[in-house]
Each structure stands twice: as structure tokens, then as C-alpha cells.
Amino acid sequence: MYNVILVDDEPRSIDALEANIEWRKCGIRDVHKAMNMESAISIIKKHKIDILICDIEMPNGSGLHLLEWLREHKYEINCIFVTCHPEFDYMRKAIQLKCYDYILKPIDYSEFSVVLTKLVKKMEASSIEGVDTEAVNWGGLTDYQIREKENSFSEQDVERRVKKYIREHMMDSINIPDIAKELNFNPQYLMRAFKNKTGFSIGDYITKARMETARQILKDTKIPIKDVANMIGYADYAYFTRVFKKEYETSPSEYRNRQNKQDNGE
């Protein structure tokens, strides 16, 4: 079993990560927490820490600065970085410092558990073979491979931000130029990256998201169907009905009636 330290200047991020990972199943015994580089170093000096899980962008010493300090002082600690901003220069520096992996926020906790478990298994294998655990890293990647990883993270960021925009503007008239302008992306890149990640065009995803929202409202409330249509951005009730029927092979009123009968045990 290994010990980890979570380092992030946002307490909610640390608490969420601590709460959503089954640490012992991943091979972790103790979880320490710090909110800045100075506090992290103090804990590392006092406790046996095997894995650093750290945000990159922090005031008063970034995650890269912390890992650089650890390498300079010969601490054999593996590192997983988390960040909101995938950037080539960050990745290259992280690799130079023998970082194991680089995960984009918001964290997919299932994915994170897989990454952490793989790291622990590699550390266990290295320990058995007598290999320095510090060698468990990205070190062999070329600039091209780093760019490929950056592109993957960038597309993941596009997917996350576009979906968030759509959720927050469900009642509005949504179009790709407005999304691109708001998120500061080239429209062509935005469309390509989103489809690469989701398999849907942005337009198709907007429709699906709206229909799913409508379905939930129809199921869970008694709001008039015309108002439901307005709530998800459809001023034309007849058009909303056609789109809903195409998606679910039933009209909104038929869907609600069927749900009511099921709820009443009919």
C-alpha cells in the first residue's frame, strides 16, 4: 500500500477528489492534503509520500515548481497532474520532470481510478524488480506524441465547455458562431473537435440535449407542454412536437400520459 498527497488551492477540488475515489481499492493507504507548495513540502518532509496528485496552476508555487523541487531534492515520488488548461509547454515540462500522467479537469473519477491503479501496479512491479520507481513516467514520448495527447485533451475541453454552454443557454437561440465566440474557439475547429469526441455534430447534440430535458420535465412535472417547449428554446409548439416525436417515436402528450399511467400503476 502507498501514501498519496493531494495538492490544490481549491479546497472543494481536494474534498471532491478525496470523497470520490476508493483509495484502498486503488492500493492507497493514507491520503494527505495540502493547499499550496509550502504546506505540501512540509507534509512530504514529515511523512513517507509515494504519489503526488497536484493541480498545476496554484499561487505561490505551481505544481510544476513543486515537482521540480522534489526532483532537485531527490524525492522518489510519482506524480499525476490535474489541470483545467491543456498546454504543450506544461506537458513537455511535466515529462522532463518525470510526471506519470496529466488529467484534465473536471476529473472523471472512474478514469482517474484507472490511471491511479495502473500507476500503483507499475510501482509494485518496479519495486519487485528492484527498479527505481521514479522511472515510471512519460519520459519516452516525442514532441509529436505530446502534441497528440494535447490535442486529445483539447478536444475533451471543447466537449466539456460546449456541453456546459448548451445546458446554460437551453432557452436561448443557440448557434455555432455564438458558441465559438463565447468560448474563444475557431468555429471550424469547434465543430470538428466536438464531433471527434462525441460522434455528434453540435446541432444534433443540441437537439438531443433539448429533447432529453423536455422528456425529463414532462415526466417529472405537470408544466403545460407548450411551456415546456418554450423552456428548451422552441417557440413553435408544432415544430417541437415533430422533433420530439422523431426522437422518441411518440408525441409529448402521449409520452406524458404513458408516464402518468405507469406512475399510477395502470
UniProtKB/TrEMBL annotation:
The modification 4-aspartylphosphate is found at residue 55. GO terms for molecular function: DNA-binding transcription factor activity; sequence-specific DNA binding. Residues 160-258 form the HTH araC/xylS-type domain. Gene3D superfamilies: 3.40.50.2300, Homeodomain-like. The keyword Phosphoprotein applies. The keyword Chaperone does not apply. This is Stage 0 sporulation protein A homolog. The lineage of its organism: Bacteria, Bacillati, Bacillota, Clostridia, Lachnospirales.
